[in-house]
Amino acid sequence: MTAAASPAPVTIATLEAFSEAWNRHDIEALMGFMHEDCVFQTAAGPDACGTRHSGAAAVRKAFAAAWETVPDAQWRNGRHFVAGDFGTSQWTFTGTAADGSRIETDGIDVFSFKDGKIALKNVFRKARPNLPAAK
């Protein structure tokens, strides 16, 4: 009897590819990185954790909502770190709000990994007023 192959661990390259999928607005690719029992905790919301989305269907819907709210959303200047089943991605979020004002703020994702996938994506973002609309 042979043991089942262990899934490949999450690496810095994995987090780089995950970030690239965010910038392409590629929901299928993003969900390919997520564990089936994943959790996404947003930067804002009514709870201490922001808003908690549990399970792949809820996470998919919440991820897609980011591009509905900010259609030109980008996460730039990524810096990634992985140690075992824990990782982080630091970035600068940019985009245009519905009123035309510009968003530019730093943030970090804190991850937990399970079975070679992202089990938890916990977002923290600086609270910064939007910048005036581009002229």
Automatic annotation (TrEMBL):
Span of the signal peptide: none
Family matches, as InterPro entries: NTF2-like_dom_sf, SnoaL-like
Gene3D superfamilies on file: 3.10.450.50
Domain of life from the UniProt record: Bacteria
Domain SnoaL-like: 16-119
Ranges annotated as spanning the membrane: none
Protein name per UniProt: Ketosteroid isomerase-like protein
Species the sequence originates in: Variovorax soli
